[in-house]
Amino acid sequence: MAEVMPTDAVIDDCWNRIGTKGDGTCSELQQHLRCLNCPTFARAALQQLDRIPASAEVAQQWMHSAVGTEPPQQGADASALVVRIGGEWLAIAATVVQEVAETRPVHSLPHQRNPAISGVLNIRGALRICVSLAQLLQLQTESAAGQGASHLLVTAYEGQTLVFPVEQVVGVHRYAPDALAPVPTTLAHATIQYTRGMVEWRGRQIGLLDHELLFYVLNRSMT
Question: What predicted TM-score, i.e. pTM, was given to this entire model?
């Protein structure tokens, strides 16, 4: 039987002392590279979620601790996670990202008509639907099923959880909502449809995905 931690147990935030947010002396970093991939961090996250009601703010704080946050700009009171999908740099609202997980086997769903639905996978004991944004946005990648991905974005919006394979995760970028630029017509048609606006990141303009539309369209396609 799995050990149950008491809800009032002290959480050892070793990632802030000897991990990637600390002095980097933890011996586990050789194997896991980042604290995000370490089972110790996962256990601490579960313990934290057991003792505090789950909220977008809590999930965002844990994600920031794992992947890092760029220095905020003046007036930047919104945040997005910057990722690479099919060679394209994109951003998604940090408030919908629950976790950045390692890749794992995806099991296909029979009679699935939407080619962007790769199948289901196991996230902390629960089966979650895996969606290939590369396929949905018609981006070039190693495979339509996202097998070239190195990470999984576990996202949630209005009670629905979806998992998106990505090739690279950079970190959390803060921006000013009123600084969003219009979407240029040079983007691929499918990307334009699902892009809310353009944010400036490291001297370039990248698309901020419209997660509300994404979840709406994908939920409709699965009913």
Answer: 0.66
